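thought: user wants a sequence for this fold. calling inverse folding tool.
action: design(structure=
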């Protein structure tokens, strides 16, 4: 930790103590490109915020990777593009994305400033630490996902607090990626990108463990906990291999297999105005949208993913294979997941439409006191559902320079009881036993809609601001049409309104700060100790 702090200070002072910077590196923009294209945090402060991928959830909205060996294309908007594949930024439960820079702005990079690349293999990382104040929060949990705190108002939000945090603007990761030219414009690509917790000994992120730690604990005494898709192993992030074929300057095709980011997560991150910023973005923090209804499906084991770009047009698809084996399905894949995306860019407008079909989706939670008294230690409860999701998302570059950009999206998710129920005794990610399965929760189908609208604006070449509104709204699926807080099945909503300022100190160090207010209404507030929260978060990142 001392070495990390020394490196951070040295980089902030532009002293070549840890990493030699490469000022000549060019960062391609990805205005119309694939979800895998990445740009830099300097984009945030040098012209345009354009999230292009992830999210997760757990993903990082501001990291960029060195693209010197990637083919570049020119988008219909006149922005320089880069072929996708392994050029994904680290991130999230969420999901995370990158910010892209309009052509002509001063270049810069985050990832790759140390030039840690040898024969197409690159080592990179991101360390994000900070502190937060919350009016109604739950105590810090070093196994809780993302920041270690609850970022929006939830049932166990019970007291005001001030505490250090992590991953507020982006998921901390240590990763390696490969992009090896095989000839004939074909490249072998691979990536291993585990999330780490820098404030807790750089352990692998293990969010599911935070649920088990709260088994049987009264709600007012619980620590922060949340179900995501990272579960304490080196493959808690992406872990895939595949091939990329460059057809022409503005045309490419990629095919990858392994543990991959969902197609919808790629697109959500592209169109989220605070993409990957866990302390400020609802859809990055919770991962429900990026998971097609369940956050555990934001990243998918044993999945085959196809991505392509043909000028202004793009198409992506994904299918997941069920089964269990120690390499690609260590915890077992019991259902199925199918996804399809169609996208188009016209002038300054970019739009995507995404379909997701999930069978036997798993949403895990802690055991009640009565359940914990008789069931195996560290086991969990889960609701099983079949989900169908449709999303339409857009962004618009208001001015030609790209200093002001508008973002918006709408997602409709239908939850049904599973057509093929699962058997008890199965495990979820991380190998945690599911001792209690609820498979009849949606006799009346639950409809969840997610909406967001926001903007990003570059105030100066180094300082930018973003802000907007997120809402999750559910129908009444109790059977009586209730619209109060008498039941969690009554209609209601969760609303979040953030503002985020980001400042680029230099190529390797970024500072950020902002606030986020959240509140719940009607059925969404059932069982809550408090219904509102205001969070203030500050922090910094070191990336290499």
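)
observation: tool returned 544 residues.
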């Amino acid at each position: 930790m001392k070495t990390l702090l020394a490196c951070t200070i040295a980089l902030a002072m532009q002293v070549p103590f840890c990493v030699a910077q490469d000022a000549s590196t060019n960062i391609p923009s990805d205005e119309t490109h694939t979800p895998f294209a990445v740009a830099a945090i300097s984009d945030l402060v040098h012209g345009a915020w354009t999230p292009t991928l992830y999210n997760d959830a757990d993903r990082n909205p501001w990291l960029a990777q060195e693209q010197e060996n990637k083919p570049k294309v020119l988008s219909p908007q006149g922005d320089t593009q880069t072929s996708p594949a392994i050029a994904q930024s680290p991130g999230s439960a969420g999901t995370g994305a990158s910010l892209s820079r309009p052509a002509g702005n001063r270049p810069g990079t985050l990832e790759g400033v140390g030039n840690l690349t040898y024969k197409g293999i690159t080592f990179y990382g991101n360390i994000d630490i900070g502190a937060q104040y919350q009016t109604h929060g739950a105590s810090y949990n070093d196994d809780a996902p993302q920041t270690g705190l609850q970022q929006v108002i939830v049932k166990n939000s019970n007291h005001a607090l001030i505490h250090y945090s992590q991953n507020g603007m982006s998921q901390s990761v240590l990763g390696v990626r490969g992009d090896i030219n095989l000839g004939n414009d074909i490249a072998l690509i691979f990536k291993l990108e585990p999330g780490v917790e820098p404030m807790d000994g750089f352990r692998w992120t293990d969010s599911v463990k935070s649920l088990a730690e709260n088994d049987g604990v009264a709600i007012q005494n619980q620590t922060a906990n949340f179900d995501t898709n990272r579960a304490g192993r080196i493959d808690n992030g992406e872990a895939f291999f595949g091939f990329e074929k460059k057809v022409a300057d503005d045309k490419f095709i990629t095919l990858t297999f392994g543990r991959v980011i969902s197609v919808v997560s790629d697109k959500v991150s592209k169109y989220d105005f605070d993409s990957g910023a866990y302390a400020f973005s609802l859809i990055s923090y919770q991962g429900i949208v990026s998971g097609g209804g369940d956050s555990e499906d934001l990243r998918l084991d044993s999945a085959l993913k196809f991505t392509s770009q043909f000028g202004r047009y793009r198409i992506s698809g994904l299918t997941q294979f069920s089964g269990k084996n120690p390499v690609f399905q260590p915890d077992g894949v019991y259902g199925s997941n199918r996804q399809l995306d169609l996208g188009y860019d016209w002038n300054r407008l970019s739009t995507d439409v995404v379909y997701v079909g999930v069978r036997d989706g798993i949403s895990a939670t802690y055991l009640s006191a009565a359940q914990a008294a008789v069931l195996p230690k560290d086991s969990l409860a889960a609701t099983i559902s079949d989900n169908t999701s449709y999303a339409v998302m857009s962004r618009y570059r208001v001015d030609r320079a790209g200093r002001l950009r508008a973002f918006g999206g709408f997602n409709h998710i239908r939850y049904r009881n599973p057509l093929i129920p699962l058997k008890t005794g199965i495990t979820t990610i991380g190998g945690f036993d599911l001792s209690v399965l609820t498979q009849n929760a949606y006799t009346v189908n639950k409809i969840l809609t997610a909406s967001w609208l926001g903007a990003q604006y570059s105030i100066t070449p180094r300082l930018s601001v973003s802000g907007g509104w997120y809402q999750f709204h559910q129908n009444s699926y109790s059977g009586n049409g209730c619209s109060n807080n008498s039941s969690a099945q009554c209609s209601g909503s969760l609303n979040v309104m953030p503002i985020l300022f980001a400042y680029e100190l230099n190529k390797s160090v970024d500072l950020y700060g902002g606030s986020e207010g959240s509140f719940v209404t009607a059925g969404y507030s059932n069982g809550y100790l408090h219904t509102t929260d205001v969070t203030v978060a500050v922090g910094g990142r070191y990336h290499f």
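thought: summarizing for user.
answer: Here is the designed sequence. The chain has one domain: 2-543.
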